[in-house]
Design brief:
alpha/beta, Rossmann fold, Helicase, Ruva Protein, domain 3, 2 domains, two-stranded antiparallel sheet, binds S-adenosylmethionine
Length: 271
């Protein structure tokens, strides 16, 4: 690792410095033949080197151009390409247009300060990504992999659950990083669902989950004042659910049922 590097807190720079963990991340990603691995934030290139060995191609986005000379030199004439830009400003489908690989995976130790925007960006890009294996802050890993009824379960959990099966894989101590951060980390995997149960109106569905969790201490009814409560009530009763229930108790299927019922009602109205 390049210890002469001037670490930048504002870019969330905590470089992974543990061979075992690096190997474990790549092992868990378990990339099939002919895979393009996308990495967000290669840093000094420790994970990049591991990805390079197993992926057919690697595309890494790095915002810190101070790393440019050493990384370009390290991976000269290899299957690794860099884009020197803020990942959040990129058009992923444009960036990968020239790659012909069968599979696309995201494998990265990402900058934690933009974990949710990164995940939203990936999902909203519409690019067919089979699996995402990323290191995140431990508390965030718990939120993303939370089950209904747990205090960590929130709208981002439901949103990601719509597309992916999410698992926390293993915890990583803060001692494995340079410089040492104030939090522990965990590696999670998001595996694209083979069969997504689609909501009839996805725009309505995404707005509904956001609104349902707006005030965590409020009941679903109180958070969803602007929706047709009679329709929602019917769905809850059909499922024997308490009418004073909170959003954190509801699984993905119930949210889709509610959204679809509201959509059917709207369709009827507009006939
Ligand atoms: N992958 C390296 C490792 O495991 O050692 C570095 C991980 S470090 C937690 C996060 C990296 O993301 C840093 O290199 C940082 O400069 C980069 N980064 C931060 N914000 C970024 C952004 N918006 N777009 C692309 N890279 C970014």
């Amino acid at each position: 690792m390049d210890y002469h590097h001037h670490f930048k807190k504002r870019f969330g720079q905590n470089f992974l410095n543990d061979e075992n963990i690096l190997n474990k991340i790549v092992e868990k990603a378990n990339m099939p033949k002919d895979t393009l691995a996308i990495e967000i934030g290669p840093g000094a290139g420790a994970l990049t080197s591991k990805l390079q060995e197993v992926a057919t191609n690697v595309l890494a986005y790095e915002i810190d151009t101070e790393l440019r000379d050493s990384l370009e030199e390290k991976f000269k004439n290899t299957n690794v390409q860099f884009i020197w830009d803020d990942f959040l400003n990129r058009n992923i489908s444009e960036d990968i247009k020239s790659y012909q690989n069968k599979n696309i995976y995201v494998v990265a130790n990402i900058p934690y300060y933009i974990t949710t925007p990164i995940l939203e960006k990936i999902v909203e890009s519409g690019v067919d990504i089979t699996k995402i294996v990323i290191m995140v802050q431990k508390e965030v890993a718990e939120r993303l992999s939370a089950k209904p009824g747990s205090k960590d379960y929130g709208s981002i959990t439901v949103f990601l659950n719509y597309f992916y099966d999410i698992d926390e894989l293993f915890v990583v101590s803060r001692n494995c990083f340079v410089p040492k951060p104030n939090v522990d980390s965990a590696v999670i995997s998001l595996e694209k669902k083979k069969l997504v149960r689609k909501a009839k109106n996805e725009k309505l569905f995404f707005a509904l989950i956001r609104d349902s969790f707006q005030y965590r201490r409020k009941t679903l009814h109180n958070n969803l004042k602007k929706y047709d409560w009679n329709t929602i009530e019917k769905v809850l009763l059909e499922r024997d659910l308490d009418l004073n229930i909170r959003a954190e108790m509801l699984n993905l299927d119930v949210f889709i049922d509610i959204s679809d019922a509201l959509e059917s009602k709207n369709e009827k109205k507009s006939i």
